[in-house]
Structures
1.
Amino acid sequence: MERIDIHPTHEINGRKLRCGQPFPFGAMLVPGGVNFAIYSSHASSCTLVLFNKKEPQPFAEIPFPEAFRIGNVFCMTVFDLDYENLEYGYRMDGPNNFQAGHWFDTSKILLDPYAKIVSGRDVWGVQPDWNDIYQHRGRISFDDFDWQDDRPLDIPLEDMIIYEMHARGFTKDESARIKDSHRGTFAGIRDKISYLQELGVNTIELMPIFEFDEFENSRRHPETGELLLNYWGYSTVNFFAPKAGYAATGKFGMQTDELKTLVKELHKVGIAVILDVVFNHTAEGNERGPTISFRGIDNKTYYMLTPEGYYFNFSGTGNTLNCNNPIVRGMVLDCLRYWTAEFHIDGFRFDLASILGRDPWGFPLANPPLLETLAFDPILARSKLIAEAWDAGGLYQVGSFPNYGRWAEWNGKYRDSVRKFIKGDLGLVGEMAQRIQGSPDLYQAAGRPPSTSINFITAHDGFTLADLVSYNGKHNEANGEHNNDGANDNYSWNCGIEGPTDNIYIQALRHKLMRNAMAILMVSQGVPMILMGDEFGRTQYGNNNTYCHDSPLNWLNWNLLEKEKDWFRFVQYCIAFRHAHPVFRNAEHFQNCDYLGTGYPDISWHGVQAWHADWSATSRVLAFMLCGQHAKGGKVKDNQIYVAMNMHHESLWFNLPEPPLGQAWYVFANTGAKPPEDIHWPGSEPRLDSQSGLLVGDRSLVILLAK
Amino acid sequence: MAFTIEAEVLGDLGKVTLIGELDGSTAPLFKEKIEEIAKAEIKRLVLLMAELEYMSSAGLRVLIFAKQKMGTSVNIYIVGAQEMVQDTIDQTGLHQSFYLVDAFDFTT
């Protein structure tokens, strides 16, 4: 018996139709046609607008009959469409009253918030036709990718080592030495998977890859004439569509296949994928911004508005998505479920996540429904949820982000403490003890584990690691904002000369500080995150806010890998050491006692004298020892590890605690030694000459293990 | 450019020659031929693509369809694909499901 719901019941202008399914929202292939469903609570009517691919004018406009509106959802199945070549949008009619928050305008063609492919910016950087009446066009995708047995990897958060990267910048530079057509694309990242394996990271975090417009606010630099683009992409056009311009196949509309292929190939070698998602605002900007989608569909639902009808600006970018409105909350949930189920994404990092905890008037909620919903969602149950726990409206929630036992945080306090400590600031040892332990001062009282703390010293926002030790201040003139943009609190030190220098002493000191930073990061409890290129000394020439440069300033220069091979080796070995030693990756906080009766506390504190840490305000010295038998709460056995950090400007003799009976100390790393003696491959560490103590050089760090 | 397709079954081998542009409007012809060939009990399917100028996502989807229709016991060879077609297959990850070769020896 043939189904009756695959037959049209209505005909308008020769188009065959029937009332559609109100769920799911979006455009979905159904037998014989396409089902269109879109929500608007304030629209009085809606028209479906259909284009053939890249055609300037629509070939059909079909008003939704009154009978095809169920609740506030317009739904219609249209039969006999060439869905491969179809681009679709909507016109919405309704009140146009600024103060009331309504922006309906039937002259605008609107992008479906649930479109799965968006065309219009198919190839990165190609100037669009600004006269096009419909700039960002919805298209229909197919969910028929051959995943075989792949699924998200489910790596425990505390075992992750995250590598933050820009999808284009990673391989755009010629020095990437890959096929030209792959440079700057998902296919290009795939070509570099073996490099990621060599480095040893097991997670990549992609800066925004949802469809955005690189030409948003594009402008010429007043002095240099350089075209400045929205390179970072923290401004979403559509939350369900991968950026076409990041795919070598974007010009054929096959970006979903290319991205899925990348995820599948990464998963095959044990590398997870986290997406940086930007739900705090959209590309429609403030009152003067373009009407792309949400504003024309249901402005009052999607955005936080002042009583006068203006946009609240907690994001610092013009508007604020109304995330705790139930409709918007539903969209965010649908979006994350889609990326998890359809793209096998392993987790999400939420840009300016504190906004997601504000009510429609901007007040922070004690129990934000969106954050709670995401924490308890069955499909997201194993996804990593990481908050950037602050926003541009002044809400700073590091340590207090509403978490429901699920949310981790970018730990900005870790970044600042380590930066200050390695440049020799006083009064940091107490704070450093907390940071090294996974910041229990911030998380333990609330029952949150060490892996709550995403530890990082550098990220896309701010200096690169090489610049952190080469510049005292930011140098953002290239951004064309008179050096007023970007953070001022960098806690950086140029080691004597601002910027590049031929002085070999300064170069050596800079490398030593970089080694100290990386070593501290890799021996800290929590989840380390490193920034793309830091492993071979990428510089942005002191620019700490390179959001607008599609140029070698942002593209990874792979030639540095050869030049900085000693430094790369150091990073690579540190990563391998962390993987080799579970004692750095505890799922529970230290108890600072010997709860297993091994003769050693799980963590103990030392100074130049064993068992005596100098906690005074003038101290720049701290050492600690991890008891291997307490690794992962005693569930696994590991080596005893001792780390001595001397951030003083003179060498100091450290007396060592005794290693376990019958064992001796071996040297894994000594940042004061010249390569190749600075570090040894895990398992082939040389025995320490004198077992009772050692001289730790000025501004140096030593890592020993007992065996 | 127009699209033409020829298909024949030679013993346990299916041979399909694709010429021209394979897109949304011509992909159904390709799919039809695949369905026809699938009725025969073949062990190998050979797709001759040297004269195929272009393949859209619709064409790729017929390749996926062919793979799923034929099952894992049938090896599918894509022969002589031009660079653009090969790139598309490669960038979307389909290269793993097929044997991409320059030439095919029908005597073996």
2.
Amino acid sequence: MKVLLVDDEVELVSAMAERLGFRDVDADWTDNGESALAMAEETDYDVAVLDMKMPRLSGLELMELLADRHPDMKFIFLSGHGSEADFKAGCAAGCNYLIKPIQLEDLVALIRKVAA
Amino acid sequence: MSRTQCEPREGLRFFGRISASVSHEIKNVFAVINEAAGLIEDFTLMAGRGVPLQPERLKSAANSIQGQIKRGDAIVRNMNAFAHSTDEDVREVNLVEALRLAADLTARFADMRQIRLTVGESEPASMVACPFDLTRLLHSSIVAAFDSMQPGDTLAVSVSPYGGGASFSLSVPGKDAPLKNDEPFAELARAMNARVEVDEKTGTSQLLLADKGAPA
């Protein structure tokens, strides 16, 4: 299983990728949407974990672009906000949603669930 | 500068917008600390299973935590200064400090647009003002300037004395003067006896604040 992590907080997303690796989840990471789109052209990712609020491309906008090009890809959103608007938007996109700071075991469980 | 008579609800909305932005930043700080601490925990668990500890990895994770605590401290310090801006209706305000605070509180808004916001060299300036309304005016004018900018642009702001009041300068190196459209904050500016002047030759816009009782 291949996972793509996208978050503009580099220290966060790199540490998450490393920790997922310790749990046998093969994760690549990037800090922006444009790079994520390019990476997804090169590698078949089963799951993309996207930060809700990122410069230029938001998590939802990035999901729409990725889903259009990779129909089988599944999505999980991360957010620093517990805002109702974000939550509703996340739910409309499938309700796979975690609020930062997360417990990594929760993310691992959610990744395995959506990829099943 | 006279005290504004703006709709209190607008002030509350501004306070909410800044608070939401600050809380988001703090959440990110906690999230990074959480993952760095998690990495250290993972390393120690692996060491328990016989995988040798790598001191440089522990050091890197510890540095990350220390860096984020420093970042979080600066965010909370700015939020505290912003909260205390409501303590008094008017007082003598150090305008260089006020501009730095407004720029710091607006930094995340700039980041989301991939715009760099810098506070340039300023001359010492102070005036009697409502600190909260001044922060709101500076934030609103900076955000209005973003509307004419592109990702990758830099907005440079500075302040200098102007008559008995002050002049806040906004410019985008290599680009036209910003703030040609001051409509988003025009009502607030009028209420605060402030106005905008755009100088196309220098590519600079000035937000001019009059001293109390004087026309801008």
